[in-house]
Amino acid sequence: MQRNAAAADTAAILLALIAGCIAAAQVGKVPPAIEAIRAELSMSLVQIAWVASAISAATAALGIAVALTMARRGAHTGLLNGLILLTLGSVGGAEASSGNLLLVSRILEGTGFVLVVVSAPSLIASTLAHTPQRRRLWLTLWSCYMPVGIALTMGLAPLILEAGGWRSLWWWNAGLLAVCSAVAFSYRNRLRDATRAAAGPTAPPPSWRALRQPGSWLMGISFGAFAAIWFVIATWLPSFAVEYMGYTARGATWLTALAVVGNIAGNLGAGFLAAAGLPRWAVIAGVQVMLGALGWLVFSADADPLLRSLAAIVACAGAGALPATVMAGVPIHARNPQQILVANGILFQCANLGSLAGPPAVAAAVTALGGWNGGRWLIPAIAMLGVLAAVALRGVERRIADADSVTGAGFAGADAGASQ
């Protein structure tokens, strides 16, 4: 019986991971298809920009609200409904006859994306509520969902686009989402039972109390600062590399893709840092310092192009340690699985606010200060905000560890001690 239960738990966790990767693929499917979509639907640059950013905008607007709702209805419900909405959105996009209809379909996809990325890590944490080491490992793997999903889609997209056009790319994704939805539906009872078992026999406090946990907000601020700088590099590096570093358009694209894929190595490296006993706040602060310094160097217009290229790759790769570290820290600040849902909502809403605000903020600074050598100073300023949040997190987690060592309370178990 125990072996069967463990197998069912592993299957449910793998389902959550795969769902996250396929959800992330919906972010990555737009950039390779932009020119084809614009040509067929006669869309303006503003319209296509909204199509590309609709998912980030939805997460920035709905993360906490979705988390509070799913805390009442269950993370398993959020995962299943999110996959269904993503499927419907991809089908709607494949059949869109105008730019406005395509944008509506992307809003639908964005809502589904929020549901999946808030619910999936909560399901993983709930399923492994009583095995902190395994939970930390699986949450580290979960942190790779975005670069893995985007990289796989961008790698396969040229082949699908060449064979059948952008609508085929949408249909391929709709098929994957439909299959994942069907599997999730078949596992719905196991997913529900895992959440209930982790909650325990007593009624949990209202989920809105998680909004008063300072640690979740401090990690969210750090996550937002990271996302702002990371997306500044991913957004502006291609054009900057062509204009200032001597790259061709294709070479600049490959440089950016290499930097993005390198993020996966950083995600996985976070597990080794945790196993080595490095405090969470120190990892977060260290990543912010590295991002601030290397991001500043990347956009130094008079620096050596090779040095700037290496800085971009190292910055994006090393930065991957932050999402994994932050997500593994969520159970430290949660008193029950419902509060994990809300904490995840805070993290993802802050991260997407950063990713939305970062690139235009740096662009505005570059314009106002007369070029990149002036505007680049905003990057270390954003990083400093993340460092300050990390230092404040140190004190919060020390107080939690001290309190839990006395009372035995908390959801995190043995993880709490590693945060100091």
Automatic annotation (TrEMBL):
Superkingdom of this entry's organism? Bacteria
Gene3D superfamilies given for it? MFS general substrate transporter like domains
Q: Where is the signal peptide?
A: none
Q: Report the principal subcellular site.
A: membrane
In this chain the Major facilitator superfamily (MFS) profile domain maps to 12-398
Where is this chain's protein located in or outside the cell?
Cell membrane
> Which topology term describes how it sits in the membrane?
Multi-pass membrane protein
- Which residue windows are transmembrane per the record? 49-71, 83-104, 110-130, 137-157, 169-187, 217-239, 251-274, 281-299, 311-334, 346-371, 377-396
What Pfam families does the entry give?
A: MFS_1
Q: Which keywords describe this protein according to UniProt?
A: Cell membrane, Membrane, Transmembrane, Transmembrane helix, Transport
Xref: PANTHER family: BLR6921 PROTEIN, MAJOR FACILITATOR SUPERFAMILY MULTIDRUG TRANSPORTER MFSC
Give the protein's recorded name. MFS transporter
- The scientific name of the source species is Aromatoleum buckelii
- List the taxonomic lineage: Bacteria, Pseudomonadati, Pseudomonadota, Betaproteobacteria, Rhodocyclales
